[in-house]
């Protein structure tokens, strides 16, 4: 596979994990997952992790994965790239894993004295990728090995931080987000 095809496939595969965080930002609010509970004087997760944001984010990623499945054949032949489809378990695992990664990062932020919204470089950019991939490999190991070849994984790890920084700066400029990270 050429470099451009590898980048296209990596982006395609990760779209259902990229969209949940952004959907959560738009949908956020309401009851926090931790219900206000604290641990060692700091919030367990904080007000930035809500049930609604998590549910809407996961649903948005899953709906997108189903939409990609529906158009993979047509788009693939139009651009001349063999675009993968997502087995149903992965349709759920990628967005749910992405949301859980973001939640796990908030847990770590609160344990390390970072307030809600404080930046946590590297963790902020990769938390959702790591758990999205982990959930996918657990629910569909055979599919995962075929789809996520080493070059695709390498592109994902390089591309994701760039896209994450870019979309968050845009979301901040447009007023959807309180901080540009
Ligand atoms: N959000 C949500 N539920 C989630 C993730 C995000 O409701 N599971 C919403 C919240 O309104 C949150 C906003 O999206 O404030 C931005 O998300 P994020 O940057 O992940 O949260 P922060 O507010 O920065 O909080 P933290 O420091 O815990 O990451
Ligand atoms: K975050
Ligand atoms: Mg934040």
Automatic annotation (TrEMBL):
Pathway: Membrane lipid metabolism; glycerophospholipid metabolism. It comes from the Archaea. Its EC number is 2.7.7.67. It catalyses: 2,3-bis-O-(geranylgeranyl)-sn-glycerol 1-phosphate + CTP + H(+) = CDP-2,3-bis-O-(geranylgeranyl)-sn-glycerol + diphosphate. GO terms for cellular component: plasma membrane. One of its GO terms (molecular function) is CDP-2,3-bis-(O-geranylgeranyl)-sn-glycerol synthase activity. The chain crosses the membrane at residues 86-105, 126-144, 150-174. It is found in: Cell membrane. One of its GO terms (biological process) is glycerophospholipid biosynthetic process. Keywords: Cell membrane, Lipid biosynthesis, Lipid metabolism, Magnesium, Membrane, Nucleotidyltransferase, Phospholipid biosynthesis, Phospholipid metabolism, Transferase, Transmembrane, Transmembrane helix. Its cofactor is Mg(2+). It is a multi-pass membrane protein. InterPro entries: CarS, CarS_archaea. Catalyzes the formation of CDP-2,3-bis-(O-geranylgeranyl)-sn-glycerol (CDP-archaeol) from 2,3-bis-(O-geranylgeranyl)-sn-glycerol 1-phosphate (DGGGP) and CTP. This reaction is the third ether-bond-formation step in the biosynthesis of archaeal membrane lipids. Belongs to the CDP-archaeol synthase family. This is CDP-archaeol synthase. It comes from Halovivax cerinus. The gene is carS.
């Amino acid at each position: 596979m050429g470099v451009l095809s590898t980048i296209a496939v990596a982006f395609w595969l990760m779209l259902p994990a990229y969209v949940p965080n952004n959907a959560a930002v738009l949908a956020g609010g309401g009851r926090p997952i931790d219900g206000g509970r604290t641990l060692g004087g700091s919030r367990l997760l904080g007000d930035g992790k809500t049930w609604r944001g998590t549910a809407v984010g996961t649903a948005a990623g899953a709906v997108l994965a189903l939409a990609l499945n529906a158009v993979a054949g047509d788009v693939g032949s139009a651009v001349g790239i063999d675009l993968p489809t997502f087995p149903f378990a992965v349709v759920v695992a990628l967005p749910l894993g992405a949301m859980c990664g973001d939640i796990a990062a908030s847990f770590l932020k609160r344990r390390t004295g970072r307030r809600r919204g404080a930046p946590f470089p590297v963790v902020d950019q990769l938390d959702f990728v790591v758990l999205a991939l982990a959930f996918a490999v657990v629910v569909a190991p055979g599919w995962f090995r075929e789809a996520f070849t080493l070059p695709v994984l390498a592109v994902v790890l390089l591309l994701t931080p760039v896209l994450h920084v870019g979309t968050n700066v845009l979301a901040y400029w447009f007023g959807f987000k309180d901080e540009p990270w």
